[in-house]
Amino acid sequence: MNAKPIIEVKNVYKHFGAVRALDGVSLKVYPGTVMVIIGPSGSGKSTLLRCMNHMEVENQGEVWVEGEQLNGNQKHLNRIRSEIGMVFQLFNLYPHLTVLENITLAQRIVKKMSKKEAVENAMRQLTRVGIAEKADVHPQKLSGGQQQRVAIARALAMKPKIMLFDEPTSALDPEMIKEVLDVMLLLAKEGITMVVVTHEMGFARAAADEVIFMDEGLIVEHGTPEQLFDHPVHPRTKQFLSQILSH
Amino acid sequence: MIEETSPVRADEVHISLDKKSLRTKLEKFPWWFVALLLIIITSYIVIATNPNYKEAFEFIRIGLSITITTTLSAFVIALFIGLVTGLGRISQSVIFRNLATLYVEFIRGVPMLVLIFFIAFAGVPAVVGGLNALGQWLQSIGVDFLAAPLIALENKNIDMILRGVIALSVTYGAFMAEIFRAGIQSISPGQMEAARSQGLSFWQAMYFIILPQAIRNVLPALGNDFVAMLKDTSLVSVLAVRDITQVARLYAGRSFRYDEAYTTLVIMYLSMTVILSLCVKYLERRFHRNER
């Protein structure tokens, strides 16, 4: 990679009370690439993702986004966050707003877009995730898969430089996982920079440029999907993969 | 399959089901409410036809405007105090959080009647004295345009109705703070996270995302507080404020018609609270229907 990384995590430690979620983690995310983070629950993968836009603040170490270090400055942080899209496990759509309003709100408040501009952009994003006909309904009327696609459209509408996905299919019924993964694959093909925490190994294989395996707050092994899935080196990686791929 | 050959049998089942549903309907019917309405209607018929009751009603009615304006103004101020204090209770700032909690716990530990006496006869004079002193100080440093009105302020400028409104607002502000706090805390933390992740500031997220949901959730509780406040305005009669309670006492003392005065007073409060409670229930149902 010759380009500069969009996100750089340098030797980050994070603990919650006595629990050490991250125990000295470093990585770089390059523009146009898809990074998938896998690992058992409690391995710190979600915490690592949430450190990237300071939803969690590291206890030690540094997080750099686009050449700027995230510090305590709230204004700076708000601006950086508006350029990082985040998709949550539980969608977190705003239930008191319609689908369209869910998408236009931050554009209008944070990006100060005109209403017309925001609505047009929102409709483009809804079309992109294949759900434009639901623009005027409230999120509760949608299925889980549809809600997650709206959440993706909401993040995309901010024209983010990078998208973070925090286990986006873990709360979905099995028959709805595919529609969300299809949208994510589409985005990956479009060249959007993504960091995805997931248990969907099929998606990792198909979309990832780099797969990271984490365990107990550390990056145990990383490489291309082929390297990691077909020729894992570390015994812990082999054990994890055999456990989830055995059936 | 269960044998279902005989149509007679099916009919019997049908009839017995019908009987049962009629019975449960009768059991669930709100008889108490019909009785309550009958009490109110009968009383108003008596008031309309019996000259003694009519006289009492016409006299007490004069206090209605004070009861209603006191309730409305104290409620609006209490809403404001409650929202600010409720936000203070969940504030990240140690100072705001402790100040808000101190206020709430202080108010909750003192009877409302005692607070009304305290605020009207000790609190307000103390604040007036403080403002006078502030005025003196401003005069000494030469800010005369601010100093003059402050020095001129006297206890007698603040009438008892206003003191009653202040006392009720301060008391109910503490109750409402707890309602708002619970309402805000009932919203999933994911809502704040999603808004913050898009670059909204804490207060923008609070205003656009959290509060609209929280306030909708607490509307029934606020409605109940409104009804409770209407009743508690009767306490300001101890300040000789001429609300319906005070006027009823005056009438009873003057005419010695205690039955007429206090029965009429009860019916007036009851009819107002019953109507308001119905409105609250209606609102509650409407909001529940809109959800999910």
Brief rundown of the structure:
The complex is a heterodimer of chains A (247) and B (292). Chain A has helices spanning 45-51, 74-82, 99-109, 115-128, 144-156, 174-189, 201-207, 225-230, 235-245; strands spanning 7-16, 19-29, 34-38, 60-65, 68-69, 84-87, 162-166, 194-197, 210-215, 218-223.
The residue ranges of chain B in which pLDDT falls below 50 over 5 or more consecutive positions are: 1-7
- Determine the mean pLDDT of chain A: 94
Strand content of chain A: 15-25%
| Largest sheet features of chain A | 6 strands, mixed
H/E series of chain A, N to C?
A: EEEHEEHEHHHEHEHEEHH
What gross morphology of chain B would you assign?
A: flat
Rg over C-alpha atoms of chain B, rounded to the nearest angstrom: 27 Å
What's the count of strands of chain B?
Answer: 0
Write the layout of secondary structure elements.
The complex is a heterodimer of chains A (247) and B (292).
Chain A: E1 7-16, E2 19-29, E3 34-38, H1 45-51, E4 60-65, E5 68-69, H2 74-82, E6 84-87, H3 99-109, H4 115-128, H5 144-156, E7 162-166, H6 174-189, E8 194-197, H7 201-207, E9 210-215, E10 218-223, H8 225-230, H9 235-245
Parallel strand pairs in A: 3-8, 3-9, 6-7, 7-8
Antiparallel strand pairs in A: 1-2, 1-4, 4-5, 9-10
Helix pairs in contact in A: 3-4, 3-5, 4-5, 5-6
Chain B: H1 7-28, H2 31-49, H3 51-60, H4 64-89, H5 94-108, H6 112-140, H7 144-152, H8 160-185, H9 189-197, H10 202-232, H11 244-255, H12 258-290
Helix pairs in contact in B: 2-3, 2-12, 3-12, 4-5, 4-8, 5-8, 6-7, 6-8, 8-10, 9-10, 10-12, 11-12
